[in-house]
Amino acid sequence: MQPRQKKLIGVLLFLPALILYVGLVLWIADHLPSHWAIYLVFYVVAGTAWAFPLKPVFRWMNSPAAS
After folding, report:
1. What is the domain extent for residue 49?
2. Residue among 46, 57, 41 nearest 22 (CA)
3. Where are its TM segments located (predicted)?
4. Per-residue pLDDT tens for 8-18?
């Protein structure tokens, strides 16, 4: 598969996943106790956690085309 096709598929997978993730994070944030320290820790963790499940997709998108 060509790199351009891989990137298109990756973006088409990434955007809906990111929208769902943001919605989930906001829903969870609505149920947290109202304290700045809790929000700080939550958003730091949530802001970095999205990348780990999508790391294999990014690696696949940027891998060279098979011969």
Report:
1. 3-61
2. 46
3. 7-29, 35-54
4. 998 898 899 89
